[in-house]
Amino acid sequence: MEWATEVLSYFTSDFLWAGAVLAVKITVVSMVIGLTFGLVLALMRMSEYRPIAGVAWVYIWVMRGTPLLLQLVFIFDALPLVGLKFDSFTTAVIGFSLNQAAFSAEILRGGILSVSPQQAVAASSLGMGPMLTLRRIVLPQAMRAILPALANDTIGMLKMTSVASVIFVNELTFRAQQIVGENFKFFTVFAGAGLIYLLLTSIISIVQMTLERSLDPDRRQQAGPRGRLGFGRRGQVALPVATAGPARKASRVETVRELIPAASATSSDQPFLQCTNVWKAYGERDVLKGISFDVKPGEVVAVIGPSGSGKSTLLRLVNHLESIDQGEIRVGGRYVGYVKENGHLKPISGRARARAEVGVSMVFQSFNLFANLTALENIMEAPVRVHGVPKAEAEALARRLLAAVGLSSHADHLPQHLSGGQQQRVAIARALAVKPRLMLFDEPTSALDPELVGEVLSVMRALAEAGMTMVIVTHEIRFAREVADRVVFFDDGNIVEEGAPADVLDRPKMERTRQFLSAISNESDDEEVA
Amino acid sequence: MRSSVLSLAIAASIALASAPVLADAPKCEPEKVAEKYPELAGKTLLMGADGQTPPYAYLDSKTNTLVGSDIDLAKKVFDCIGVKYEIRPAAWSGIFPAVVAGQMDLMFYIYYNAKRVQQADFVVYMKAGTGAITQKGNPKNIKSNDDLCGKTVAVGLGTVEEAQMKELGGKCVAAGKETVTVMTYPDHAAGFRLVANKRADVMLTDLALVDRTVADNPDVYVRAYGIISGFQIGAAVKKGNKVLADALLDGLKAVQASGGEQEVFKKYGVDPALELPAELKTN
C-alpha cells in the first residue's frame, strides 16, 4: 500500500495544486472570453452580408486548422518582434481564447440553427429586435444543444493547458512532469495528478448537469416557487376560470373590447392599411403583381385564394417581415421600417421597433409560441421587453387575456403541453398583448385538427365583434361569410375580385372565383362524406 | 554603515589601481554593477530552465524549486555580477525560442552550434559528453555509434543527437545496412520510459544525465557507451545583447577563476574535466 500513500501525497501536494489552480484560472478566463468572441463569430458566420460571413469563416478555418502549440509559440515568441510582448499567463489566455472562439462559434451556430427560424419570425413580428430575440428566445432554446459540447470543450481545455508549458506556464501536468523528471516515479506522480484532474473535471460535469436541468423548461416548471439558479418565478396559481357557461360569448366580447385600443380613435374614413401597387418577386417568380388594397379601421377583411396566390406574402409585407420590391404599404399613415427616397422605399434598421410603434400583430399558421416560455410568459414577453410595461402590470394583462381566450388554468403550461387549438389561442392573446391596432392572421386554423378549429374561430369572432381591425388569410369560407366585412379573392399575385361576402362568395362575378369556390366546397363536401 | 562605505572605498581604489594589471582575471564585484553594467542595475534577469534535466536542472522535492549544477552555477554568476534573477521552468523546446524572442533574458546549458549562434549569442563554459543508455544487461550489445544501424534510438526533439542520428541513418543505408529508427521524446523522463519499456533500444543524451540515471536506477538501465562529443555548452542570450553577454562572460570567468564551477560540478556529480574556459561566441 506504499504506492497508495504516495499517490495520495501527490494528490494533496501544494505544488501540484498550485499548477491545477493555474490551469483552472486559464480555463475559466479563456472560456468566458472565447464564448463571447465565439458568439460574435457565430453571428458573423450567419450574416447575410457575404464579406462578414467570409471573415468569420476564414478565422475559424485558420484557428481550427493550426495546432494550438504553434499559436501559443507564435504569440509568445513572434509577436515581440512587432512590439507585442505578453507574459506567459496572458499569452495562454489569448491563445486559448482565440482558439476556443473558433470552436465555440461553430457549436453556438449549430445550437442557434437547431432552433426553428419561425421562433425568431414570431419574435420579430411582436416588435422584438434581433439581439433581444437572440437573448430571450433563441439562445435559451439553443443552450440545451450547446451545453454538452461546451462542457466537453471546457474539460478538454483544462487538460490541454499543459501545452502551454512551452511558454513558461507552470501548470499541473508540467509540474507532474518535473517531479517525474527528478524521481522517475511515473505512475504514482501521474496518478496523483490524474486524480486532481478527475476531481476538477467532475466539478465541470456537475455544473453542466445543474445548468442542463435549469435550462430544461419542464424541470424549471416543476421547480415551482423557488426555481433553480434564479430562473424561478412565481408558482402556479390556480385561478378560477373566469369565463364559463352560457354567459361566455358576451363576456368574452366585453373583455376583448376592454383590452384592445379603441378602433375608431382615428377618423374611420381614412384607411388604416393602404397597399398601393405592391410588387414582390422571389427570384424570377412574381408573387405579387401590383396589388392595391385598403383596410379601414375596424374593418375585417378575409383574404381567400389558392395556395401560392400571394396571400401570405402580402401579410408578411404588411408588417415588413419581408421587404417590398415596388410600390408602398402604409399602416396608420406610416411606412413600417422604410424611408422614402426618390419615390422608392428603402429598408432601414430598427424595423422591429417600427412594427411595435405602428401596432401590427401577427398570428401564424404554425402558432410559433416561444417554446422556452410558458403561456403566461409568452404573452408577457413583448409588453415587458419591447414596450417597457412593468412586470406586474403585464402579468395582470396577460392573465386577463388568457381568461378572454378561455385558458386561465393553463397560464403556467409550456406550449408543448398545450393542444394546437390552445396554442393558437395563446398566440392570439400574445398578439393582443402589444395592444395592436391591426391584426394579421395567416391561415390561423390550417394546422389544426377539425375539432379544434371552432375554439380558435370563436376567439377571432369575439375580436371582430369587439371592433378589431383584422386581415385574415383563411380557407374557412363559412367563417369568412359570417365575420368578414369584405372578402378579397387572390389568384396568381392579383386581386381577382373583392366585395361584400354575400357578393363574392355567393354571387361571384369572375369565372376564376367560381372555380375556386366550387373546388373548396367539393373538398369540404368530401370531408363531410368521409 | 561606516565600514561598508569604507570597504566600498577600498574596493574601488583597489579596482582602480589594479584594473589594468588584472584585466584577464575578472573578479566578482557585485557592488559595482551600476558602474560596470548600468543597463543591468536594478533589473531582474529572467532565466528559462528545463526542470527535467538532472543533474543540471531539476526539481528539489523538498522545496519544489529548481536546483542542479546549472542552476547553482547560474546563481553564482548572477551573484557575482550583482543582478537579481528569477528562474522560470518551461518545456525544453520553448526555452530557446523565448530567449531569441526576448521573452527570457537567458538560458544556461544549451549546445553551441553554427545554426543556433545565428539566432543568439553564446558564452560557452563546458564541454559536452554524449551518453548512450540502454536496458540493464545491454541486450542488443551496443558498444558505440557504429552499432546503431538497424536499431531504434530515442533522442530529444530538436537536439543535436536527433540531427546526428538522422545523418547516421543515411550513412547506414549507404553502407548497405538497415537505417536508424529515430524516436523523439519531448522530455528526458519520456525518453527514459521509452528505454525502460523497450520501445527504444538505446537513448542518446547528455553523459552526466545518463550516468546519474544509471546510478539511481541500476536495476533498470546501464550505460552502453559514452563519448566526449567535442560540442561546447554555454549560456545563450538574445542576439546582440552585448551587455548581458559581457556580464555573463565576466561572471563566468570570475566564478571559474575562483574554483566555483569545479565546486558546483563536484556537488552534482558532473565530471570536473568538462569545464571549459569561458568564451563569448557570436558567430
From TrEMBL, chain B:
Q: Which domain of life is it from?
A: Bacteria
What PANTHER family does the record point to?
A: ARGININE-BINDING EXTRACELLULAR PROTEIN ARTP (PTHR35936:SF17), MEMBRANE-BOUND LYTIC MUREIN TRANSGLYCOSYLASE F (PTHR35936)
Could you say which residues form the signal peptide? 1-23
What protein name applies here? ABC transporter substrate-binding protein
Give the species this sequence originates from. Answer: Ancylobacter mangrovi
The cross-references to SUPFAM superfamilies, in alphabetical order and at most eight, read: Periplasmic binding protein-like II
- Keyword set, alphabetical order: Signal
Instruction: Tell me which residues make up the Solute-binding protein family 3/N-terminal domain.
Output: 44-272
Note the InterPro entries from the entry: Solute-binding_3/MltF_N (IPR001638)
